[in-house]
Design a protein that fits this description.
about 900 residues; alpha/beta; Serine Threonine Protein Phosphatase 5, Tetratricopeptide repeat; 5 domains; 6-stranded mixed sheet; 5-stranded mixed sheet; 37 helices; 14 strands; globular
């Protein structure tokens, strides 16, 4: 056939078209039967056509066909050369139509996107991943709804977005992937690989379930159903059946972890074992399937053991984990995860009776933690486990190596919550490492280094607050030196203030930011910071201030008490006079957690009139007892050292579960207590407090925004809210009132930047129980809640006072208690200098009186803490026996 011309319409042209059709038929037969002979025939025929053809349509068809066949051979044998060749062939096919689009080009885009993504999985080259998503979008954009290949192209883009979400842990990309994959399954036709689509959907649903922190169990049940449908649709001869079985096993073991049903674990074990047996040595997916099987075996051993597996069982799991890790080559995107799994199995073996296994586990964890090519989340987890293993194996004596590990983990922690992902994702990432900074600080304190303990707490807590402080930074010096860089900084800062993508904004008129845009903005932001820091005198731009600078500022304003609550030890760090004084506290982490939960349950019972009077009295007694306990274990030891003059200011920076307890009200109801000694305020971090101290002086003109809801759809009435509104409008007639059905999300967000003061009177929802995002309950809350994330992303340049006359505005979920992610904390992050919030539900009959007393005593903005202190003290004097009425009110700010 060599040299035969193939102009359109000639016999030779039609001959080559027929030959290409034969090659495609051979490939289709291979996909149905798995026959290697059919695959080799397809490869040979496509190669011959590409060699002799001159017509661009035939050449592009042959290049695409040969690329597809090389792709199939890679899937079968895992030779990277096949994958590289396929990428080159698909690029060649597209290059044959540089200035036009034909019916064939969407297929070329789709195929190129698929193989680029496969190569990324093998090599980890990020450029391949980014281009794969772009190629998949291009293919789908050129595919009409009724096109027979639309389902496949939907799947292609969904798989690319899934991979993007795995790379960046970006749930917005994952959400889009799930919806695209569902559509693909719905429109799949006879020629589509329905089994593959169903299996992909099952895996996406599993990951989506994970991204909700286990809140949406229906996603997991749907994933199991789709995974089983995939295996059934594949039959016994599908070449990818092993993949589908392994995917289903992964979903089942996830559901087992959520519900502990042994049948799920047993089915997962059978599927995973069969998938590994069906995957030959050297296959690129064998490593993934071995990891799945190893995780299942570890779960089986843990289930059968009462607490710690027997040494023989633990050794068997450790060996399986070692084999699985050995099967993952260097450079594979799962290499670090595999090593982490091996170290976990070795640690279990060490705990079960083989302490020498600690050494091997520590060596692996140290290597992963220090590997700059490993994902940051894996490095942080490895460093934390490294520290824990060192302390466990040395019985707490080897503080030096443990501190190295903790220092690395805390140093990397902010990178687990990058700007490139949504606010919700950043919360989720940080929740995975709750308590890390506190443990690191406790280790430093055990080593006698309180300054380093403070540094670690400041670096590893309040990460999202630090992002907000960065965007509110003063640009005077930057503008003086480089006005062009200041302009670019302001432009990027404004771009980041846009809504953050799928799931972040519930406003129907918000134009959300696609994930690709966020990732691009994040790269630009990092590059701009590097450029700014190279300017003379600006090397410290947006870097956290040194501890010495913080202490110097506190020496002029303080004192500040940082309370570190860790499972290792609990201490108060008293910052005053430019130094750190350590006060050991005689309490434990579990005790504080228990007290916080008991207090929350007690205040809930006191607010239920339907309960018998005896139970309500018992609950009130628990509240009073908790306040006395707080005094005895925390406040009194601090005051014994500090000896503050009566009426002086003090700032509390509580950490962990202590952040949900009312330190400002500690003490017996009839005194003496904290209220009798100092005027208390809270701060999420020392840096945030110092930033508030250094911010602009407040104005004296109060033009408040009053948001009030006496009645709210789906909520109980608040009959005393109108009295609160009348008091405010009388005192501040120039203020704006959004009352009742006018208090909707859009109106509030539009009005906030124009009012330095906010007074909210209505219901609020706490995220303390993890069942919902914290939010203010506005009139349209069912359709568009004003969430903590919505408030936190605002940048209110002139905000001064926010008074939140609502329940639970100062309480966040326990997994995020070091991030101040509650409504009061969100207002502080948004820019309000002073925030009045609440530690639990407040009495509607009492709230208007406290608010009126507060505003009557408020002379200037910076009197907010004193005004609240006096109002609460007056209520306490009137009702000393009812701390549930006066103790919840708290002040956040300078």
């Amino acid at each position: 056939m060599t040299g035969i011309p193939d102009a359109w319409g000639t016999p030779q042209y039609h001959l080559l078209v027929g030959v290409c059709g034969q090659a495609e038929a051979h490939h289709d037969t291979y996909e149905r039967t798995g026959s290697l002979r059919e695959l080799e025939l397809a490869l040979a025929v496509f190669t011959e056509v590409l060699t002799v053809a001159r017509n661009v349509d035939i050449r592009s068809t042959a290049a695409n066909g040969l690329g597809t066949a090389r792709w199939s051979r890679y899937e079968r044998f895992g030779d990277l050369a096949d994958l590289d060749a396929a990428i080159g062939l698909f690029r060649d096919a597209l290059a044959m139509y540089p200035n036009e689009r034909t019916p064939a080009t969407p297929s070329f885009h789709a195929n190129l996107g698929g193989v680029l993504r496969l190569r990324w999985r093998r090599t980890g080259v990020e450029a391949d991943l980014v281009e794969s998503v772009a190629q998949a979008r291009a293919a789908l954009a050129e595919t009409v709804p009724a096109h027979p290949r639309r389902a496949g192209r939907l799947t292609n883009l969904a798989d690319g977005l899934l991979t993007l979400s795995l790379r960046y842990d970006d749930s917005s990309a994952l959400t889009e992937a799930v919806e695209l994959s569902r559509e693909a399954v719905a429109v799949a036709g006879p020629g589509d690989d329905l089994a593959g689509m169903l299996s992909n959907l099952a895996e996406m649903l599993r990951l989506r379930y994970r991204s909700t922190n286990g809140r949406e169990r229906a996603l997991l049940d749907e994933a199991v159903e789709r995974g089983r449908e995939a295996v059934a649709a594949a039959g016994d001869r599908h070449p990818l059946r092993a993949r589908f079985e392994s995917n289903l096993a992964l979903v089942l073991v996830e559901r087992y972890a959520a519900g502990r049903h042994p049948a799920d674990l047993a089915e997962a074990g059978r599927l995973a074992e069969h998938a590994v047996r069906a995957t030959p040595e050297g296959h690129p997916n064998r490593a993934e399937r071995m990891l799945v099987l190893t995780n299942i075996r570890r779960a089986e051993v843990t289930r059968l053991a009462a607490e710690v597996p027997r040494p023989r069982e633990a050794r068997r799991v450790a060996r399986a984990a070692r084999d699985a890790a050995a099967a993952v080559p260097d450079g594979h995107y799962l290499r670090a995860d595999a090593l982490l799994g091996e170290a976990a199995a070795l640690t279990v073996w060490a705990v079960s009776g083989e302490p020498k296994a600690y050494r091997e586990a520590i060596a692996i964890l140290r290597r992963v933690a220090r590997d700059p090519t490993a994902p940051v989340r894996v490095r942080v987890e490895a460093a934390r486990r490294w520290a824990n293993a060192v302390l466990a194996s040395s019985r707490g004596r080897d503080l030096a190596e443990a501190r190295q590990a903790y220092d690395l983990a805390v140093g990397l922690l902010p990178r687990t919550a990058p700007r490139r992902v949504t606010h919700t994702d950043r919360e989720r990432h940080l929740a995975a490492f709750v308590g890390l900074a506190r443990d690191a600080a406790a280790c430093a304190l055990a080593a006698g280094d309180p300054l380093d303990a403070l540094r670690l707490l400041e670096h590893g807590r309040g990460v999202l607050l630090g992002h907000a402080l960065d965007t509110r930074t003063e640009l005077t010096e930057l503008r003086r030196r480089r006005a062009d860089l200041a302009d670019r900084f302001e432009a990027l800062r404004s771009a980041f203030d846009r809504p953050e993508g799928v799931g972040f904004s519930s406003r129907p008129d918000d134009v959300t930011m696609p994930g690709e845009d966020r990732h691009a903005l994040a790269r630009d932001w990092d590059a701009l910071l590097d450029e700014i820091r190279r300017v003379d005198g600006l090397a410290g731009f947006l870097r956290p201030p040194p501890v010495d600078d913080l202490l110097a500022e506190i020496a002029r304003r303080g004192p500040v008490v940082v309370l570190n609550i860790s499972g290792l030890r609990c201490d108060a760090l008293v910052l005053t006079g430019g130094r750190v004084q350590v006060v050991p506290l005689r309490l434990g982490l579990d005790e504080v957690v228990d007290r916080a939960r008991r207090l929350r349950a007690a205040v809930t019972r006191t607010n239920r009139p339907s309960l018998p009077a005896r139970l309500r009295e018992e609950a009130r007694a628990t509240v009073a007892e908790t306040l006395v306990w707080l005094w005895d274990t925390v406040a009194a030891p601090v005051f014994d050292v500090l000896a503050p003059p009566p009426g002086s200011r003090m700032w509390w920076v509580p950490t962990g579960p202590l952040s949900s307890l009312p330190l400002h009200a500690a003490g017996p109801a009839d005194g003496p207590g904290v209220l009798d000694r100092v005027i208390s305020s809270y701060a999420p971090t020392v840096r945030s407090l110092v930033a508030a101290w250094r911010s602009r002086p407040p104005t004296r003109t109060a033009v408040p925004l009053v948001v009030a809801l006496p009645q709210t759809p789906g909520r109980g009435d608040l009959p005393n809210v109108p009295a609160e509104v009348r008091m405010l409008t009388t005192r501040y007639p120039a203020g704006r009132v959004l009352l009742g059905d006018r208090a909707v999300r859009r109106s509030v967000l539009d009005a906030l930047p124009r009012h330095p003061w906010l007074h909210f009177a209505g219901h609020a929802v706490t995220a303390a129980d993890g069942s919902a995002d914290g939010h203010l309950v506005l009139h349209d809350h069912a359709a568009a809640p004003l969430t903590v994330a919505d408030i936190a992303r605002l940048r209110l340049a002139h905000a001064e006072v926010a008074y939140l006359s609502a329940c639970d505005t100062g309480v966040s979920h326990e997994d995020l208690d070091d991030e101040a992610l509650h409504v009061a904390g969100a207002c502080h992050i948004a820019g309000f200098r002073h925030v009045v919030g609440t530690a639990w539900a407040i009495d509607d009959a009492v709230a208007p009186g406290v608010a009126a007393d507060f505003y009557a005593r408020l002379v200037g903005v910076d009197d907010a803490a004193s005004a609240l202190h006096q109002a609460v003290s007056a209520l306490r004097a009137a009702r000393p026996d009812r701390p549930t009425l006066w103790a919840p009110f708290l002040h956040v700010g300078p």
